Amino acid sequence: MTSLKITTVGNSVGLILPRDLLAKLRVAKGDTLYVTETPNGIELTPYQPDFAAQMQAAESIMRENRDALRKLAR
After folding, report:
1. Helices 49-64 and 66-73 meet at what angle, rounded to 10?
2. All structural domains of the chain with their residue ranges
3. Which residues contact 43 (CB under 8 A, 6 or more apart)?
4. Rg, C-alpha atoms of the chain
5. How far apart are CA 25 and CA 20, in angstroms?
6. How far apart are CA 18 and CA 25, in angstroms?
7. H-helix segments, the chain
């Protein structure tokens, strides 16, 4: 478990993420992290949860209609 300390950043407050945590999240300076409240607490993710759900739905539809989409692509 990693503990993070809240610190002053300019006129705001923020968290400094250690390099190993940045590597695990696969993010770097300037990237966006999304915060989601879950039953287990707060989750930080580099992926937008809504977009991920939409992509799963799109992939399902593409699999179901593979033949029709292939014909339309010609």
Report:
1. 90
2. 25-73
3. 35, 36, 37
4. 19
5. 9
6. 11
7. 19-25, 49-64, 66-73
What tokens appear for 48 in the block?
A: 């937008």
Q: Is the dihedral of CA 28, 30, 36, 37 positive or negative?
A: positive
Copy the structure tokens of residue 2. Answer: 């990693």
Joined together, the tokens standing for residue 62 give 């593409």
Amino acid letter for position 14? G
- Amino acid letter at 61? I
Instruction: List, for residues 23-69, the tens digit of each pLDDT value.
Output: 998 999 999 898 888 899 988 888 776 776 777 888 888 888 888 88
